[in-house]
Amino acid sequence: MARTNTLQYMILGLLTRQQMTGYDIKQIFDKEKAEFWTAPFSQIYPELNRLLESNLIALVKSNDPNTRKKTYQLTSTGKQVFLDWLKKPLDPSVTQLNNDDFVLRLHFLGKDQQGILTKLLKLRSQTLKVEIAQLELELTEVTSHPEQYGRELIIKKELANKKSDELLWHNQISNFS
Amino acid sequence: MARTNTLQYMILGLLTRQQMTGYDIKQIFDKEKAEFWTAPFSQIYPELNRLLESNLIALVKSNDPNTRKKTYQLTSTGKQVFLDWLKKPLDPSVTQLNNDDFVLRLHFLGKDQQGILTKLLKLRSQTLKVEIAQLELELTEVTSHPEQYGRELIIKKELANKKSDELLWHNQISNFS
DNA sequence: CACACCATGTAAGCGGTTACATGATTCC
DNA sequence: GGAATCATGTAACCGCTTACATGGTGTG
After folding, report:
1. Predicted model pTM
2. Strand order in B57-59's β-sheet?
3. Domain total for chain B?
4. Could you read off the pLDDT of A83-137 as tens digits, one per residue?
5. Where would I find the Transcription regulator PadR N-terminal domain in this sequence (chains A, B) (predicted)?
6. A157 touching B, CB under 8 A?
7. Which residues in B lie closer than 8 A to residue A168 (C-beta atoms)?
8. How far apart are the C-alpha atoms of A32 and A99, rounded to whole Å?
9. Closest chain A residue to B105 measured between Cα atoms?
10. How many angstroms separate the CA of residue A142 from the nearest CA in chain B?
11. Which of A20, A96, B79, B104 suits a disulfide with A127, CB 3.0-4.6 Å?
12. Range(s) of the domain holding residue A30
C-alpha cells in the first residue's frame, strides 16, 4: 500500500487525538486494522525515533521517574506536516484520489472538519466515476472471452464495489449540504 | 500485496494460456492491471531468469536467428507448481481466504475448472461472512464516538462491499448447481 | 511462581520501486 | 530521419516482514 512513508502520517494522525506511547499506537493499529492499517513494533519504534529526530514529535516529560515508558506528543511542526498531508489531495493539480489514500485520510476526519471531508468525498466520487466507466468497457470486452470467466467475475465484483462506494459518498455529500 | 513471491505464480499463470516473452507479460499486466496486478520490467526479467534456472519454464526455440526475443513456455514441472499454488487454499487446513489471494487465483480460472472455482467461491464466501459479522460489531461501537465519523464511514463502506461480494459469490455458486 | 501482558528495541532478508543503460524495429 | 515502440536487462534504495533479544509489571 505505502509509497512515501505512510506510517509516518498514521502515527502523526493518531497523536493528534492524544499523547501516546509506541505500544499504545500498536494497540490501536491492531484494533482498527481491518479498515486501514497495521504495522509491527519493529517498524513503529524506529519511526518514532526518526520523528523525534526531525522534531515532528516530542517526548512528554513523565512525573514518574522509574518508568521506561516513552510518551510522545505532536510538536507544532508535526501538526502542520500532518495537516499538509491531509489536504494534499485537495491541491488543484491533483485530479484523482485512489482508495488507499482516500481511506487513510478519511480515518482521521471527524464531523468538525466537514469542509475537508466533503472535498475529499467529491474528489473520490469523481475518480470512481472514471474507474467505473473504464471497467464497463473492460466488461464488454471480456464477456467475448469465455475462457477468461474468472477475470469477468473479478471485473463484475470491482464494478459492484465501486458503484456502491460512489453511491455512498454521493449520499454522504447530499446529507451535508 | 504479495508475501511469498506472488509474481512467480502470476507469470506461470499467464504462461498456461500461451507462450510469451517478458515484454508480452508486461503488456498484459498493464492491461489487466486494475483488477489484480502490476509489475515493472526490473522485476519481470530477473524473475523469468530465476524460473528458467529452476526449470519451471523453458525457452522456445526460435526459427528466426536474428531476433533478441526470448519466448518462454511452461515445463511440466511449472504446470504442476502452478496448479499446486492454485489449489492451495482448498487444503483442509486452510479455513479462510483473503481477497488478494482469492482474486489472484480467480483470475486464472475458466468455466472449464468449475470444480475448483466453486470451492474457492464457497471458501471466500465463508470468510466474508465472518468478516461481515466482525464489522457489524465494530460499527455499533464506533457510532458512539462522533469524533470518529470518518472511521464510521470507512466501516460502512467496507461492510457494503463485503455484503455485495458475498451476495455475488452466493449467486454464482447457485448458478452452477 | 508461572504466565500473560507491558514495553522497547535490533538484525537479516526480501519484494517492490525508481532510475539507469542499451540497442533494434516500425511507422509517419 | 525522428519518434514511438519493441526488447532486455542492472543497480540502488526503501519499506515491510520475520525473527531475535531483553526485561519489567500485574494477576491467578
Report:
1. 0.93
2. B20-21, B71-74, B57-59
3. 2
4. 999 999 999 988 999 999 999 999 999 999 999 999 999 999 999 999 999 999 9
5. 11-81
6. yes
7. 153, 156-157, 160
8. 17
9. A150
10. 11
11. A96
12. 1-90
